[in-house]
Write a structure and sequence with these properties.
Blueprint lengths: L1 H28 L3 H4 L4 E6 L4 E6 L3 E2 L9 E2 L2 E2 L4 E2 L3 H10 L4 H6 L2 H29 L2 H9 L4 H32 L16 H4 L5
Antiparallel strand pairs: 1-2, 3-6, 4-5
């Protein structure tokens, strides 16, 4: 019996020496493991690396920007970066095609480019409408239009309308392809992080 007790005692000492460091860390980490996961993930302890690892929820990932990362007792705070919402970006792009979705995702230059493109197309259309209205109010032009349907002026007017129609079609194709690509999640935010796939909630059935 004495020999058996000694063996058990020695074995317990060996276990304590081998695992005390990790166990103590994990017990101490219990006090702030939720903080290490930013309350946005499930913490687990990795005995090999002596680190608390977090399984982030669908809405969060680890901070991709090094300068914004935080640490607690030398351990990285995880799951602190909130993904951009895909449906909100899709809604901004669909309701008003001026690049607000790019602004929301942090792509400032793409926002400015989309905004200028929209303003340009809109301005050209307005100018063409105003010029067309003035031309139709000129008696001479109306008379020429009735007498000579294929004169030079009419040909130029037809070409201008074709060009305007082409510009509007190109912009419409850009607009539709843009919101489709955005809805599929192929556009990431400015930190190269995929958007949260909350589009599925629109088509999923609510749980009972």
């Amino acid at each position: 019996m004495k020999i058996k007790k000694k063996i058990i005692f020695i074995f317990s000492i060996f276990i304590n020496i081998k695992f005390t460091k990790g166990k103590d860390f994990f017990e101490n980490a219990n006090e702030y493991q939720n903080e290490l996961c930013s309350y946005n993930g499930i913490p687990t302890y990795d005995s090999k690396t002596n680190q608390v690892m977090c399984e982030c929820d669908e809405k969060h990932v680890n901070e991709p920007r090094i300068e914004f990362r935080e640490y607690i007792n030398g351990h990285l705070v995880q799951c602190s970066y909130e993904r951009k919402r895909r449906f909100f970006a899709f809604f901004l792009a669909a309701i008003l095609p001026i690049g607000l979705d790019f602004l929301y995702l942090g792509h400032i230059y793409l926002f400015l480019l989309s905004f200028l493109l929209f303003i340009t197309v809109l301005a050209v259309n307005i100018i063409q409408i105003i010029l067309g209205y003035k031309n139709t109010n000129k008696k001479e032009e109306i008379a020429n239009h009735r007498k000579y349907k294929f004169n030079v002026r009419n040909t130029e007017a037809i070409l201008k309308r074709i060009n305007m129609f082409g510009i509007n079609i190109i912009f419409l194709i850009y607009y539709l392809s843009h919101i489709i690509i955005l809805g599929l999640g192929l556009i990431k935010d400015s930190n190269n992080i995929e958007t949260e796939n909350d589009m599925v909630y629109l088509f999923s059935k609510p749980e009972d």
